[in-house]
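Example 3.2
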Amino acid sequence: MCLAIPGRIKSVDKKTNVALVDFDGIEREVNVSLVDVKKGDYAIVHAGFAIQKLTSKDAKEISDLLEGK
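Structure, written as tokens:
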């Protein structure tokens, strides 16, 4: 089974297609070459790649489900 986790885009380097993404306080660099995102957007991330842009409502719903709320 594979999981994709929602995160909030903190910054994007358009030259390298790498974004700094916040996962509930944990920041990681993520490849965003598959989606068009900007600072403040939410995206689902799997294996270091952002694979889909999300609304903030959808990101919160998914995070709540993953936390068992």
